Amino acid sequence: MFQSFDNKSAPQFGKARVEALRATFDTLGIDGFLIPRADEYQGEYVPECAERMAWLSGFTGSAGVVLVTRSEAIVFVDGRYTTQLVAQVDPSVFTGGDLVGAPPARWLADNASAGFRLGIDPWLHTSAELSRLEKALAEKGGSVVLLAANPLDPLWEGRPAEPLEPVTIQPDAFTGTPARDKIGAVVAEAKGRKADAVLVTDPSSIAWIFNIRGNDVPHTPHPLARAIIHADGKADLFLDERKTNDEVKDYLRDLGELQTPGEIKPMLRSLAEKRATILVDADVVPVALTRIIKDTGGSVVEATDPVKLPRACKNEAELAGSAAAHIQDGAAMVEYLAWLDAQQPGTVTEIQAVKMLEQTRAKLGQAMQNPLKDISFDTISGSGPNAAIIHYRVTTDTDRTLQNGEMFLVDSGAQYINGTTDITRTVAIGSVPEEQKRFFTLVLKGVIAISDAKFPKGTRGCDLDPLARIALWKAGADYGHGTGHGVGSYLSVHEGPQRISRVSQQELLPGMILSNEPGYYRPGAFGIRIENLIYVGEAQSIEGGDQPMLSFETLTWCPIDRRLIVVSSLTEDERNWLNDYHAKTREKLLPLISDESVKQWLTAATEAL
């Protein structure tokens, strides 16, 4: 199994650990300390040794920040995690904060005492974050203290070691562009910005530039590494050689110099002493590295990571690989859903459902000689009220049986060498109440609205987000998460800068892969989400129109539960879209399925409305 069901939350230790942290404040000369979920590479998914937020508070979500002051301890989370937070932390120690509406910088501006000194670990925060914190505290006559070491680490007994997982080479057949060409593009960016070098610290960017993959963090196949790419074409990759075999070493040395991770600091000092100008992404590069440059005489040019957009705009090889991965994954989902449908209500638990899905993916991967490399995130397997917890992670403590009259939400994904998948289906277990079907249909209308959208060049994610919500809004409902996130090419299942959300200002460009996942959640009762992956297609002329329009192409093929649809609530265009989607699903997936009973299930599940 790529997923554990152990309860990793330990809220019972929160009080003692917060007190131990506060005991260091006088020595450190601080009045508070900030603990982000991020690691030293600013990743969403982090190795066990960097799970400081969870160790301190008990909260295990994938996004959040803890602020501990002398008198308060606040866990800031977004709308996905408000229910989970209540269940995972000691309420006598921690209170909840709003990560979106009133993040730590704003909280400090409103609540910090005069002269407040905030301690941070400069490896865990970016320059942009530091600027926001400094601005907030300046209004109080306070300051940010960059600590030499993280005060939590000596307190954490048995802290896991840093990962040393093997690095592999990603074939050009799947990347579409050789690493040398990608390095050349970064060099061109450096020259265009009049920079002597580019500092790249996002492991996904490293993986994409050098066409390598790794396994240092859960479910995201990138190695923890950094690079300096110089304007003269030289590339220095800071990667622990213990992660490489001879083949990988030879491959990387042909592209540049392989350095130990610790060499990045002296190399930056050396460049800075020569008055070099270095391009950094202030939203990604840790303060610890930008301070080395500035304090040693170098100059910083702040600009977006130069491979962020090229990585997001998939080329033909990446899109073809993703399409093939999704067809394989869709066939596995069909086999799984057919199995689930054949089980009697009350006989399958949430954990058993997760295990069967992973086994089905692995079995089909072997048969198709395209093995399941990993899951792309911990499967969300929520029945009844558990489905209302947006990022629910089933454990042995919360596991419950799928009961008659409930809906079951399964949000899962897979990592294959040719693509990353992410799919959510909400299905009926027995006979489901009409009220739940009504909301399922409203969510489905949002999925169709995004899938069928046509939009001009320059359209941003925030412009399309209302399309997914309007049916729910008309019914007096909404959902507390974005409609869609970017997805990588055998990389992170959550990739920027592309998103469909209220706040996304990024223009949607051809080749960008996104999720399309409206939902509805009634706490303590039920939850609904339907998710397909889509990508932005090239502009096409529309008959009678006066300008080319972009649109979305569908990657995910898997039946949507017809039993939960109030057909009379769909417009003719919506019925036509769904019937066409199901016809294509049947056409694409039937050839991959050998079991006659599964074929019959797929045929029935894709009948026209």
Architecture overview:
There is one protein chain. It is built from 19 helices and 28 strands. The model has no long low-confidence stretch (mean pLDDT 96). Helices cover 34% and strands 19% of the residues. The longest helix has 27 residues, at 316-342. It has three domains: 11-155, Creatine Amidinohydrolase, Chain A, domain 1, CATH 3.40.350.10; 168-311, Creatinase/prolidase N-terminal domain (Creatine Amidinohydrolase, Chain A, domain 1); 313-599, Creatinase/methionine aminopeptidase superfamily (Creatine Amidinohydrolase). The chain has 609 residues and is of the alpha+beta class.
Q: What layout of secondary structure does this protein have?
A:
Layout: H1 14-22, H2 25-28, E1 32-36, H3 52-57, E2 65-69, E3 73-77, H4 82-88, E4 95-98, H5 104-111, E5 117-120, H6 127-138, E6 143-146, E7 168-169, H7 172-175, H8 179-192, E8 197-200, H9 203-210, E9 212-213, E10 226-230, E11 235-238, H10 246-253, E12 257-259, H11 264-273, E13 277-280, H12 287-295, E14 299-302, H13 308-312, H14 316-342, H15 350-367, E15 374-375, E16 380-383, E17 406-412, E18 414-416, E19 419-420, E20 423-429, H16 434-451, E21 454-455, H17 461-474, E22 484-486, E23 495-500, E24 513-516, E25 519-522, E26 526-529, E27 532-536, E28 550-554, H18 572-589, H19 596-605
